[in-house]
């Protein structure tokens, strides 16, 4: 199943809400529980360029403008907290504020928006690639160490 599309029924569409992405898919992935329809792939985001997601994360045979995948966060330094978001050809840069994701008025996660820049900071060239990175949150315990669910899309504007 490496570079082939996921096996789904004809006409299948995958358009989950933020609440479904965090409350069902990400929560089950972190808990190593079975996901009913396994359509979200595990990839190493830092060894792949955004334009390669099209083939690697395809769901079914429909033309897609969004791709979904699980990826571990990479740290810039082994003992640090800073995240490494660089690829061979560029980097993902956070933009705007994180958005809270709620399930029945209870905070369950956060969504961070990132934009891909070709080249190296601070002189990178902004592209149309946008990614939403999701993480689990808990109002009581703070954020757990978890995998991120990251849908990526190419902005058509």
Describe this structure in words.
- By secondary structure, the protein is mainly beta.
- It has a domain at 39-145: NAC domain (Metal Binding Protein, Guanine Nucleotide Exchange Factor, Chain A), CATH 2.170.150.
- It contains 2 helices and 10 strands.
- The strands form 3 sheets. Strands 2-10-8-7-6 form a 5-stranded antiparallel β-sheet.
- A hairpin with a 2-residue loop joins β6 and β7.
- Mean pLDDT is 82; it is low at 141-147.
How far do the termini sit from each other?
A: 32 Å
State the CATH class of the domain at 39-145: Mainly Beta
Could you say what the CATH architecture of the domain at 39-145 is?
A: Beta Complex
Main pleated-sheet profile: 5 strands, antiparallel
The topology string of helices and strands comes to HEHEEEEEEEEE
Helix content: 10-25%
CATH topology of the domain at 39-145: Metal Binding Protein, Guanine Nucleotide Exchange Factor, Chain A
Mean pLDDT level = 82
Oligomer: single chain
Number of strand segments: 10
CATH superfamily of the domain at 39-145: NAC domain
Which percent band covers the strand fraction? 35-45%
Stretches where pLDDT falls below 50 for ≥5 residues?
A: 141-147
Q: Tell me the structural class.
A: mainly beta
Q: How many individual helices?
A: 2
Our Rg estimate from Cα atoms comes to 16 Å
Domain NAC: 8-157
Protein name: NAC domain-containing protein
Main location: nucleus
GO molecular function, one term: DNA binding
């Amino acid at each position: 199943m490496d570079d082939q599309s996921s096996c789904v029924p004809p006409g299948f569409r995958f358009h989950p809400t933020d609440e479904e992405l965090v409350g069902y898919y990400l929560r089950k992935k972190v808990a190593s529980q079975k996901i009913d329809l396994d359509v979200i792939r595990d990839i190493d985001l830092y060894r792949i360029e955004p334009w390669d997601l099209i083939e690697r994360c395809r769901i079914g045979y429909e033309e897609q403008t969004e791709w979904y995948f699980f990826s571990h966060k990479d740290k810039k330094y082994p003992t640090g907290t800073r995240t490494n978001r660089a690829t061979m050809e560029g980097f993902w840069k956070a933009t705007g504020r994180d958005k809270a994701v709620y399930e029945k008025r209870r905070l369950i996660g956060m969504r961070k928006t990132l934009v891909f820049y070709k080249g190296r900071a601070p002189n990178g060239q902004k592209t149309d690639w946008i990614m939403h990175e999701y993480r689990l949150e808990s109002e009581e315990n703070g954020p757990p160490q978890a995998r991120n669910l990251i849908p990526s899309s190419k902005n058509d504007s």
